[in-house]
Amino acid sequence: MSRLSHSEIHMVHRIGWLRAAVLGANDGLVSTASLVVGVAAAGSGKPEVLIAGLAGLVAGAMSMAAGEYVSVSSQTDAEQADLARETRELEETPEAELEELTLIYVERGLDRDLAGKVAVQLTERDALGAHARDELGISDTVTARPVQAALVSALTFALGAVLPLIVVLLVPDARIALFVAASAIIGLAVLGGLGATAGGAGIVRGAARVTLWGALAMAATAAVGALFGVTLG
Questions:
Q1: What confidence category does residue 50 fall into, taking pLDDT thresholds of 50, 70 and 90?
Q2: Which of these, 16, 50, 93, 176, could form a disulfide with 40 (CB 3.0-4.6 Å)?
């Protein structure tokens, strides 16, 4: 007899790396393109613009990695502290913990007798795992992974930041700001659409919200660059 296997891949399974990847790529593209546009709008030549863009790429990638690592590490510390506390409570007051787990299942719709049986069976199999999942909301799917988040953020930031620098190399000095802004808008729309697709959301909405904020950032830095360029010229 053939056995049919049923497997499902849910969007929440991707949340750990997807968030860091989308944030890193968007931030790399927006911040580097904005920096390049601002420096170009101030009247700087291509070498200066490239140096500023490269500096922004390196600094931004390191900053993203450090920020993600610290942020996700704090989440990991909180999870470990909660698990340690739950372990002590299971050792010191097992009856109270069993009752707590039973009430959780009652609140979710099971009758008292069935909830008690489920709580007993899950406690016998893996008491800490049951409380971590159903009381604390901690599971392998959403658990924090600091190193993974840091590496993904740094890599995707760098990949996003490369696009404006390539455009700078290819276009005339006088058109740097215009072409970088245009390519960044297109790139942001693509990234927004890809991120929305990977996360199960609407493509148009995902692309629009990313593009809007990116355009505002570039407009602001262009205004600053033009202002100081005229003032210092």
A1: very high
A2: 176
CA-nearest of 47, 31, 37 to 169 is 47
Q: Is 7 within a domain?
A: no
Question: What are the residues whose beta carbons fall under 8 Å from the beta carbon of 151, sequence distance 6 or more?
Answer: 65
pLDDT at 170: 92
Domain range holding 159? 18-232
* Residue 9 within any structural domain of the chain: no
User: Mean pLDDT throughout 141-145?
Assistant: 60
In a domain, 12, yes or no: no
Q: Taking a C-beta distance cutoff of 8 angstroms, is the pair 18, 199 a contact?
A: yes
**Type of residue numbered 132:** A
Task: List, for residues 9-33, the tens digit of each pLDDT value.
Answer: 444 445 555 666 777 888 888 889 8
Which DSSP category does 174 fall into? G
**Residues with Cβ within 8 Å of residue 219, at least 6 apart in sequence:** none
Work out how many domains the chain is built from and give that number. 1
Tokens found for residue 169: 């190399």
Query: Cα–chain-centroid distance for residue 132?
Result: 24
Quote the pTM value: 0.67
Q: Any idea which residue has 């372990």 for tokens?
A: 87
